[in-house]
Amino acid sequence: MPENLFKINVKEYILPGTRACQGCGLSLAYRHALKALRENTIVTLPASCLCVLHGLYPSTPVAVPCLNNSFAATAASAAGIAAGLQALNKTDLTVLAIAGDGGTFDMGIQALSGAAERETDFIYCCYDNEGYMNTGTQRSSATPLGAVTTTTPIATKQQHKKDFIKIMEAHEIPYIATCSPAYPIDLYDKFVKAKKIKGTRYIHINVPCPPGWGYPPRDTVRMGRLAVETAVFPLFEIEDGKFRFTSRSKTMAERGNKLPVINYLERQGRFRRMNIEQLRQFQAWVDKKWQEYLRRSQE
């Protein structure tokens, strides 16, 4: 059972009146992340859906200090903030760098890799809605095989999603975790843990997106659960190199009750052009990764 199940911070750091889309998975995730990190947090973020959620200057519904940076510079911005706090001997503040998959997998990877190699002391969070959703649902390297975007040159994306967890593991950072707004206690717990660790910590959040993925806003939590239950997005953490499943994925690993990926894909309009061969490739890709994780969990 999560250690914070009955200890969730009751204070809210996102007030009513955000500019996020109806049913936005990011709003749910960000709400619980800030509740876990609490007041002594400085956020830095690029142009993104989260920037829209924060609102237009000089008004914002978010009750923590925030710095906007350029698209590729989120980790560089966080590194600068961390260095400034260190120079001022302010050790009680947490720096949270948070960007989408485009600003992480693609444009922001250089700054993030450099900061991780230097063991810079901050939490980097990628909220992954699998495309450039803020600017019109363009393809990113996080977009899955078979999905339709406004920039796929042919009918659907022909490549699998980049395995960014492996990239971050290669840096040998102390803490990596995946989480979902559909499992908020698990998400909350992981941010609480990350706050207590020094060095670069990486948290990857699956963020369902109603307009970008093509499903009704009311189904955001259902979509997040299906991503986990089909093992398209397993929940786990890697602490000092040790892998372990968490939450629903831990139960699935013990009981062997993973659902077929079609249960997840068929509910999203972005996969409307996926053919049978792509469906088979997608299932095989998920099965292979799941087996890798199962082996690691038993080591």
Largest sheet: 8 strands, mixed
Helix content: 25-40%
Query: So, CATH architecture?
Result: 3-Layer(aba) Sandwich
**What integer value in Å does the Rg equal?**
18 Å
Number of helices: 12
Catalogue the unreliable spans. Answer: none
Strand order within the widest sheet? Answer: 2-1-3-4-6-5-7-8
Secondary structure layout:
Blueprint (H helix, E strand, L loop, with lengths): L24 H13 L3 E5 L3 H6 L11 E3 L5 H14 L6 E7 L1 H5 L2 H9 L4 E7 L35 H6 L5 E5 L4 H13 L3 E7 L3 H4 L6 H10 L6 E4 L2 E4 L1 H9 L6 H4 L10 H22 L2
Parallel strand pairs: 1-2, 1-3, 3-4, 4-6, 5-6
Antiparallel strand pairs: 5-7, 7-8
Helix pairs in contact: 1-7
What do you see in this structure?
- With 299 residues, the protein is α/β, with parallel strands linked by helices.
- It has one domain: Thiamin diphosphate (ThDP)-binding fold, Pyr/PP domains (Rossmann fold), CATH 3.40.50.
- It contains twelve helices and eight strands.
- Strands 2-1-3-4-6-5-7-8 form an eight-stranded mixed β-sheet, sandwiched between helices.
- A hairpin with a 2-residue loop joins strand 7 and strand 8.
- The longest helix is centred in the C-terminal third of the chain and has 22 residues.
- The chain starts with 24 loop residues before the first helix and ends with a helix.
